[in-house]
Each structure stands twice: as structure tokens, then as C-alpha cells.
Here is the input.
Amino acid sequence: VRILLTNDDGLQAEGLQALRRELDRRQRFDVYVAAPERERSAVGHAITVHKPLRVTEVVLPGATRPAWSVSGTPADSTKLAVLALMPERPDIVVSGINRGANVGGDVLYSGTVSAAIEAVMLGIPAIAVSLAGFEGLDFGPAARFTAELIGRLPEAPLPERPYLLNVNVPALPAERIAGVASTRLGARYYEDAFERRTDPRGRAYYWLAGEVRDPGPAEPGTDIWALAQGLISITPLQIALTDEPLRARLAAWAAGLRPEAG
Ligand code: MN
Here is the structure.
């Protein structure tokens, strides 16, 4: 299995390195790495179009394949690796392991998920993996689960078209993880409070300091609920954004609209 490994926390991030070591250790995976040279969390699906991308080849300890440090975003890294750097197309793109969960609406801001979406746009199936915690993280259980998951995909009821699985692993020791659930995106809201401060030259600036609002009990079947149960969450995502029922309802009305003559 030829794998492209990427992330949004940067090439040297612990989560990517832990997963790379685990995949290389199993010897059945051919692992290439292309990732941003520095942390690019929450850049969403941004791509670089107004300046060149620089690539530095890095030798990772014990690796059999090249690792490329890319001066761009997570989506850039996937696109560049598939279209220009890798000698052959990967069978699957794996993005992560991200430091911090990517659940609910997070997936729209997440560079981790966007690197995986870019793969699907290039016709390649992808998995985004996140570890749901921030302090004192052990990426070992999530890395071992991800390697196992990739190995077992051939037996999974997946479509022929490129699919995208968004995986979130609770930050628990392996023996305390309760199981694995197929989920849908939940609703998580942030109190998006901007702090207004003053810089040394007396000018105002704003700093987003949002915190997750306590939503009460999570809706069963969602990714947020699964993590709260100690379950690993697997959410299949699709990119099709068209609101098809609303498109159909608007059709006759929209056809009757005309631009006003200047
Ligand atoms: Mn990140």
C-alpha cells in the first residue's frame, strides 16, 4: 500500500512522526511524507497561488522513502506531492495525527481535513486522523489504530469512488478505549469572543479567544458523542455542498428573475 502522509501541524510534529514510525514498522506500507514546514492549523483549504512553493527533502530516522518539507499549506502539500513529487500516485492519503479533535464544524477550518479533501479532489481516497486532546498526549494508541485501520480497509464496505474518513481518537490508553463507531458530524459551537487590546504604539488589535460552549449532552450518533463515550469516531464525509432539495425548489423562481437594465 503506497501512502502519502501529511498533516497541518508541520512535518516535525509528534503526531505525524508517531504515525510514520508505526506505518514504517509494519513493513507492508510504502510511506512518503509531504507536509508543511511549520504549523498551519486552521488554514482550511487555502492554497498558495501568488508565490512559489519551496520543497526541502528531509531524511527521517529509519524511513525508507523521502520526506518533503513544503513551504505551503496542507492542501498545497497533498497537491504538490501527488502531482509533482511522488514517483507514482499514492493508493491513499493519510492526514495527521492532528493534535486536537476535528469534530462537527471544525472540519471546515481544519487543515488536517482539508489535506484529505484535496486528495479526494485528486481522485484518491483519504483518511484524516485527530487525537482528541491537547496536554500530555500519547499518540501511540491512535497511531496503532490508524495502521490497523488502513490494513483492514480492503475488507470494509467502501465505494469505488474516492472516499474520505474523518477519524477522531479519544486521548485514552488503548485499554480504556471503548470501541469504534461510525458517526455523523455533531454540532459544536464556540463562544467566538474577540479580545480587544492595545499594541505598544497605541493602536487597537483583536485576538480571537473563542472557547467551546458547553452544549449539554451530545446528540447520540455524532462524532462528539462518540468521543464522550470513549469511542473512536469514524465519520465518512463528502464534498458535495449543493443543497439539492432547495435547488429544486428555487428553480422556477430563479428562472423568472432578470437583471435590471442599466
Ligand atoms: Mn493541527
Q: What stands out?
A: The helical segments are 14-26, 74-85, 111-121, 140-152, 223-228, 244-255. The pocket of manganese (II) ion is lined by residues 8-9, 41, 98-99, 112 (CB under 6 Å).
